[in-house]
């Protein structure tokens, strides 16, 4: 069981389980219809010469349906298929077990690059009102409301885990 | 003067001849002659819901909640409100009392809105009672000939037309009558329905709007603050505006009464030039509305930093957004502390009945560090006397460390990251400490603009480093020199001004009115408020502001050294920037939407909430932007907007309010409307798409505000302009065309000419079909539109 990044973000008895990059990669690959949600912060996080958004684009290019929120679409090449909507808009739709951005229901939702507290609250919505979904938070600031989440880690370690994730996709 | 329908004399002359004078078919009806005091100036028929109870507007609420169902984001999975628990509700499980997670979140909505509403109610009650006690009940309510409707929201909710401050008591009595029913529903979660809890939260929000209106009307009229004045003067803002060579009194909070007593005492004793008066939070707005000699230090986030700086010689708190530990902070800089309300007694000795000189002596000598004084006049006199006497002793004693001390503290840092973990904005404090330890304070200084001043970093620090004080020291230059201009709170927006813009606004040529209001819990740099306001102004929006947001907009200047208040007019016009005043001035902004309904569409105001809300939702392109909302009051102000049909965009921290009202545009049926003329059902697009939306970034907020100003009755020219704005903002911040245009283009006339080819391609790819043209839309059954029913019954009226 994980310890939340924010000292006060202690939601209750059901907290996320730590996960590493390789395991996350395998889970994403094995999911029937995963969905990647990329937040606006992804553009601003530099992981030693490679930004978080660059990792997100690589994951998308592996064929993972993607929603780009809050202007993260700006970094995506025009020919990469993404949906644009707000983080809260996609989370709201995901409460419906029939919903899918590609017309098919999702079974796994992956988040990265969303402001910590907005991501935490969004994952809370999914935890409480979307029991048909599992969630993975690929943020280096651990998220207790996800099903699985990276533990807190420094940026160099985060970069390593993301590289391992990509290797498994 | 004759009152209608009270005929007491009828004179008919079929033919009358005298000399050359002829009169045929003359008829004269004379009614009962009334004394001037008996004349009703407001002859509207009363609508269906004067002084509504919880159940009276429930149907309207449910219509809104069906279209915009609440999306909940629990911040706590537990319920610990009774001894049956605590109960784990994760996954929408039920607790021991039977409440499930959704209902628990609805319950929190009501608790939060209700707390905020009562805060303003208490404020209003205290103001009105004080004014009646000191000036009598007959203080006239008068905003000048351009503003004959004194308070649209009070008329719409209660049907009351207050002529004097004494008349406002009836409004307060109505609100107080609703309080127990709202509170009782919280007990054991007995309401049982999350939707009904939301409806009750709307009710609390609506009551909040009239509480605020009462408070601001009363203070404007009793203390002669600017009355619907678009040319209200400019006032100084910023920590650097205070003359630190003089004794300084700092007032914090929202209730202007103690401050007015200070000002009056200073005037009477000719010490105005000898003492500086500055304010933080909304009291600061209100003191500058009373005298331009007063200064605005800044928003609530300045409290801890400013008091620690030692500039204030006396700290006087009134109510609402005051730090709970302010007495302790004031004590640390040896500044005497005075509390003035029963709502925040802070464990202080009650000195209300004591001799003034004794209180002054005790505070100046340090025998007592603080005092509770509930007599406003006495509190004012004590504050001034203490400031004058204590200033030479204090010598601006501060707890901000020297540069050498900052470096020494930084060297003790373990870089454990606990401070950043506690910081809601994830400020990179550890990096700044590394630099500071080497003597470079620049990184620490850069943190200031995004620091909300909460001090949680210090609570977590195992090394007891006063992180916030280090940041304050590192930004000392800005702190001392920060000086800008803000337009003084103008109060109401006149009927005259609304009349001048209502046609262009209601049909969409003015793309919307953005209300930038609320607190200072910003997710990033405070400067973002300035940037957002500037973007809306340059895009021809009307921007209205209040509270801490209005201050943050004013704190920044362009390259020429001018603030937005100096560059844009204070009138309610396209490219106008109106600061209405403090938090209780907020209804003046929402009142503009009611004035449009009344002036432009001739809708009855009195007791006619549902029809007015329906009109605003369908026709008036307005959107709130509360970028730093954190308080319960900000929440309830938001609720007052929702019931009135005004969408609100919040900053990302506000996800912690636990709920949003989100539409789903693919579910077109949920956006069905009726044609007012025949009641036929149509779909003209998902507009406005959401009622309460949390945006992740500044850019998303700008885009969403622009989109949420779309309205069903936009004329083609207006919709085309709004879509042009939407596309332009989208391209600027999202790098490509929006993919949802087919939802908002009703027919070819809506397509902006400049992007015609590109849009037509998108429409073709989406299989777009034109939507029906419906000139006047409603969510209601047209028979529930009271204005039309009254017209059918042959009633005619005038509202002013």
UniProtKB/TrEMBL annotation, chain A:
It is an enzyme of class 1 (oxidoreductase). GO terms for biological process: methanogenesis, from acetate. Keywords: Oxidoreductase. GO terms for molecular function: oxidoreductase activity. Its EC number is 1.2.99.2. NCBIfam families: cdhB. This is CO dehydrogenase beta subunit/acetyl-CoA synthase epsilon subunit.
């Amino acid at each position: 069981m994980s310890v939340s990044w924010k000292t006060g973000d202690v939601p209750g008895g059901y907290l996320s389980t730590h996960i590493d990059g390789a395991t996350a990669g395998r889970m994403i690959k094995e999911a029937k219809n995963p969905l990647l949600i990329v937040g606006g912060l992804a553009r601003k996080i530099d992981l030693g010469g490679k930004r978080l958004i660059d990792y997100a684009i690589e994951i998308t290019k592996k064929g993972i349906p993607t929603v780009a929120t809050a202007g993260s679409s700006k970094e995506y090449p025009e020919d990469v298929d993404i949906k644009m909507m707000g983080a809260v808009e996609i989370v709201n739709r995901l409460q419906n077990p029939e919903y899918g951005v590609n017309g098919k229901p999702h079974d796994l939702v992956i988040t990265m690059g969303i402001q910590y507290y907005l991501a935490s609250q969004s994952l809370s919505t999914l935890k409480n009102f979307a029991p048909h979904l599992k969630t993975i938070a690929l943020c280096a600031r651990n998220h207790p409301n996800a099903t699985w989440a990276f533990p807190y880690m420094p940026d160099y370690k985060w970069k390593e885990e993301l590289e391992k994730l990509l290797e498994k996709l | 003067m004759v009152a209608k329908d009270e005929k007491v004399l009828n004179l008919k002359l079929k033919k009358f001849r005298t000399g050359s004078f002829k009169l045929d078919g003359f008829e004269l009806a004379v009614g009962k002659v009334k004394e001037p005091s008996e004349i009703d100036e407001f002859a509207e028929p009363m609508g269906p819901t004067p002084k509504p109870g919880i159940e009276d507007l429930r149907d309207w609420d449910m219509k809104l909640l069906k279209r915009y169902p609440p999306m909940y984001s629990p911040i706590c999975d537990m319920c610990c409100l009774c001894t049956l628990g605590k109960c784990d509700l994760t996954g929408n499980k039920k607790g021991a009392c039977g409440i499930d997670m959704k209902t628990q979140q609805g319950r929190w909505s009501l608790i939060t809105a209700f707390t905020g509403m009562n805060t303003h109610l208490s404020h209003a009650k205290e103001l009105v009672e004080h004014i009646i006690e000191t000036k009598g009940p007959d203080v006239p309510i008068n905003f000048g000939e351009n503003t004959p409707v004194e308070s649209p929201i009070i008329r719409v909710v209660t049907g009351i037309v207050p002529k004097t401050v004494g008349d406002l008591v009836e409004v307060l009595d109505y609100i107080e009558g609703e309080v127990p029913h709202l509170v009782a529903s919280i007990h054991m979660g007995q309401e049982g329905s999350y939707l009904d809890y939301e409806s009750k939260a709307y009710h609390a929000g609506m009551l909040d709007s009239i509480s605020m209106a009462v408070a601001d009307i009363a203070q404007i009229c009793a203390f002669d603050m600017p009355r619907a004045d678009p040319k209200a003067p400019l006032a100084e803002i910023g920590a650097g505006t205070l003359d630190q060579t003089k004794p300084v009194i700092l007032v914090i909070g929202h209730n202007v009464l103690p401050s007015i007593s200070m000002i009056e005492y200073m005037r009477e004793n000719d010490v105005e030039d000898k003492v500086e008066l500055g304010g933080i939070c909304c009291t600061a707005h209100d003191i500058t509305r009373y005298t331009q000699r007063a200064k605005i230090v800044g928003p609530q986030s300045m409290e801890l930093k400013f008091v620690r700086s030692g500039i204030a010689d006396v700290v006087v708190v009134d109510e609402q957004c005051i730090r709970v530990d302010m007495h302790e902070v004031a004590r640390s800089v040896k500044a005497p502390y005075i509390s003035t309300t029963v709502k925040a007694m802070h464990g202080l000795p009650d000195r209300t009945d004591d001799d003034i000189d004794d209180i002054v002596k005790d505070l100046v000598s340090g025998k007592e560090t603080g005092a509770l004084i509930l007599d406003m006049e006495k509190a004012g006199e004590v504050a001034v006397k203490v400031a004058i006497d204590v200033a030479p002793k204090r010598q601006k004693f501060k707890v901000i460390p020297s540069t050498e001390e900052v470096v020494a503290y930084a060297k003790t840092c373990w870089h454990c990251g606990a401070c950043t973990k506690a910081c809601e904005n994830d400020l990179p404090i550890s990096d700044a400490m590394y630099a500071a330890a080497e003597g470079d304070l620049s990184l620490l200084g850069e943190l200031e603009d995004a620091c909300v001043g909460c001090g949680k970093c210090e609570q977590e620090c195992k090394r007891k480093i006063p992180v916030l004080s280090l940041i304050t020291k590192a930004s000392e230059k800005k702190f001392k020199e920060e000086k800008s201009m803000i337009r003084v709170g103008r109060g109401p927006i006149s009927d005259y001004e609304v009349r001048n813009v209502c046609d262009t606004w209601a049909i969409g040529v003015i793309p919307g009115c953005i209300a930038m209001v609320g607190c200072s819990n910003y997710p990033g740099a405070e400067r973002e408020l300035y940037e957002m306001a500037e973007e809306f102004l340059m895009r021809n929006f009307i921007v209205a502001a209040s509270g801490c947001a209005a201050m943050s907009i004013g704190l920044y200047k362009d390259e020429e050294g001018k603030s937005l208040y100096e560059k844009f007019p204070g009138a309610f016009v396209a490219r106008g920037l109106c600061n209405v005043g403090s938090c209780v001035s907020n209804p003046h902004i929402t009142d503009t939407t009611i004035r449009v309904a009344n002036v432009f569409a001739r809708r009855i105001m009195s007791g006619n909430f549902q029809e007015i809300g329906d009109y605003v939702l369908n026709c008036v392109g307005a959107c709130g932007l509360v970028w730093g909302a954190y308080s319960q009051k900000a929440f309830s102000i938001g609720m007052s907007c929702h019931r009135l049909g005004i969408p609100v965009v919040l900053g990302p921290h506000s996800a912690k309010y636990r709920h949003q009202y989100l539409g789903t545009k693919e579910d077109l049926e949920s956006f069905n409307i009726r044609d007012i003329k025949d009641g036929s059902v149509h779909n003209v697009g998902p507009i406005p798409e959401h009622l309460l939306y949390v945006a992740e970034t500044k850019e998303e907020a700008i885009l969403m505000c622009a989109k949420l100003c779309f309205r069903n009755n936009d004329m083609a020219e207006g919709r085309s302009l709004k879509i042009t704005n939407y596309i332009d903002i989208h391209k600027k911040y999202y790098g490509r065309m929006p993919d949802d245009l087919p939802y908002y283009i009703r027919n070819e006339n809506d397509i902006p000419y400049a992007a015609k080819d590109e849009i037509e391609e998108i429409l073709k790819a989406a299989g777009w079909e034109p939507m029906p043209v419906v000139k006047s839309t409603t969510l209601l059954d047209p028979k529930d539109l009271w204005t039309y029913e009254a017209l059918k019954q042959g009633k005619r009226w005038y509202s002013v």
